Automatic annotation (TrEMBL):
The protein's name in its UniProt record: PQQ-dependent dehydrogenase (S-GDH family)
A Pfam family of this chain: GSDH
Annotated InterPro entries: 6-blade_b-propeller_TolB-like, Glc/Sorbosone_DH, Quinoprot_gluc/sorb_DH_b-prop, SndH-like
Residue span, Glucose/Sorbosone dehydrogenase domain: 49-294, 373-453
UniProt keyword list: Signal
Transmembrane regions listed in the UniProt entry: none
Keyword Zinc (UniProt): no
Classification via SUPFAM superfamilies: Soluble quinoprotein glucose dehydrogenase
Signal peptide, first to last residue: 1-28
């Protein structure tokens, strides 16, 4: 089994600088010569946003975005920064932790003719406790018509509801694919860790035919979905273990990056645990290993699957979960013990650590905010760089732009010509910000990015900080050659 290490990032700015100097080659990814484009100093288009999450082009050249915590969909004029509310979900959505108003997919006819549908995903309180967890949160995807006269999203139609939701690992990316289907990413709900340690991870669980018939979507945790635009199951969806459902792929932890390439390849990025953020090429029916495997199946020093929910004889409820010490009653399995067929990632980030790596060490030892110092970067979105008109900037052909939360960096991932592998990684811009998503201007000369309103990021000397440079903002980065 092949193991790729050359593009993986280690923790800290010094390691990133070393990576830039030794392994990144923009010409190798594109076949061009000369300096590659770069992102210039950003202009603040709009601020005061309440945890923006998804970006899309809307009608009349406006940018549409969801506000996770603000429970709304906004329209922003990229030239003036003027904001207006397209949809107010404050009386319907709930938001605490990583849930709220998340996914946004806009039909092309809205962009071209100011008419058509937009699709929004958000969490709500169902009022019904799930039997095994007691969770009442659920996620729904709702279709809205765009009213160009009122400049509002109206006439809601729920296409699917009852999807899993919790305070953690929501995923929440929503796309319209080149086949006209909806694609949606759902995380593993943060099970088997922290306050949810006693909830069993369901990323490898597949629904039964009876559950699908009953519209019981509990097993959709840790999955990507493919839906008809009315919410039904496409007839050409994969049959997995004898059952056809909305599930496109499974075995995911926290998928937050989602983008299609021009040839129709679906790329996905997800957060790893202490190591092994992943970039995956999604194949229908594919298993991507989580929680049994993180990254490559290499039994590295940083990961073993410890199933806290199965603790015996001491029950999980009587244990105190730790990210560093596994109680003797908690069953564990090595990655190499996972025998199911699964797809390895195209690349990983924060993978190469030694057996004696100290995950509780400086610079996080004083604050105790250890997770921000794990060598992962928390990739939060993927955007294929393709101008709607004209040619790509020389040096950025066949590239994906990736944002990150923990190290405040926007990256370019260079793909091979078949769009099936990552062959270069280039940091484009770093600041003390949590970059949530990007979108490219029609001429390809500007990259727009949204940032979290609050949260931890690695600051100077990799010390964790909540002092963000551009909190809750829409930024415009000029692309310069």
């Amino acid at each position: 089994m092949s193991i790729k290490r050359s593009l993986s990032l280690a923790a800290g700015s010094a390691a990133l600088a070393a990576l830039t100097a030794t392994t990144i080659s923009a010409p190798a990814a594109t076949g061009t010569t000369g300096p590659a484009p770069a992102l210039g100093t950003p202009n603040v288009v709009a601020d005061g946003l309440d945890n923006p999450y998804s970006l899309a082009w809307g009608a009349h050249g406006k940018l549409w975005l969801t506000e996770k915590s603000g429970k709304s969909v906004l329209s922003v004029n990229p030239a003036t920064g003027a904001k207006s509310t397209l949809l107010d979900l404050s009386n319907q959505a709930v938001s605490s932790g990583q849930d709220g108003v998340l996914g946004l997919a806009v039909e092309p006819s809205i962009v071209s003719r100011a008419r058509g549908y937009a699709y929004v995903s958000f969490t709500y309180d169902s009022g019904q406790a799930e039997e095994s967890t007691g969770e009442t949160r659920r996620t729904k995807i709702v279709r809205y018509s765009y009213d160009d006269y009122r400049k509002k999203l109206v006439s809601p139609t729920t296409i699917i509801d009852g999807l899993p939701a919790s305070i953690d690992h929501q995923g929440g990316r929503l796309l319209i694919g080149p086949d006209g289907k909806l694609y949606y990413a759902i995380g593993d709900q943060g099970t088997n860790q922290y306050s949810l340690a006693c909830r069993q991870n369901q990323a490898q669980t597949l629904p039964t035919a009876a559950e699908v018939a009953a519209k019981d979507w509990f097993a959709y945790q840790g999955k990507t979905l493919r839906l008809n635009r009315d919410g039904s199951i496409p007839t050409d969806n994969p049959t997995i273990s004898g059952v056809r459902s909305h599930i496109w792929t499974y075995g995911h932890r926290n998928p937050q990056g989602f983008t299609f390439t021009p040839s129709g390849q679906l790329l996905e990025a997800e957060h790893g645990p202490k190591t092994d953020d992943e970039i995956n090429l999604l194949r229908p029916g594919g298993n991507y290993g989580w929680p049994n495997v993180a990254g490559y199946q290499d039994d590295d020093s940083a990961y073993v699957y410890a199933d806290w929910s199965a603790s015996s004889p001491t029950p999980c409820a009587e244990l105190t979960h730790s990210d560093f010490e596994i109680h003797e009653d908690v069953p564990t399995t090595k990655e190499s013990e996972f025998t199911a067929r699964f797809n390895e990632p195209l690349d990983t980030f924060g993978t190469s650590v030694t057996w004696d790596h100290d995950f509780t060490g400086a610079p996080c030892d004083e604050s105790g905010l250890y997770y921000i110092c794990y060598p992962t970067i928390a990739p939060s979105s993927l955007t294929y760089y393709k101008p709607a008109s004209g040619r790509a900037m020389p040096g950025w052909e066949n590239s994906v732009i990736m944002t990150s939360l923990k190290d405040g960096t926007i990256y370019r991932l260079g793909l091979n010509w078949t769009e099936t592998d990552v062959v270069a990684v280039e940091p484009l811009y770093t600041d003390q910000d949590r970059f949530r998503a990007t979108i490219v201007s029609p001429d390809g000369k500007t990259v727009y990015a949204i940032t979290d309103t609050a949260g931890l990021v690695r600051g100077e000397g990799d010390v964790p900080t909540t002092d963000l440079t551009h909190p809750g903002s829409l930024l415009a980065f000029p692309v310069s050659s």
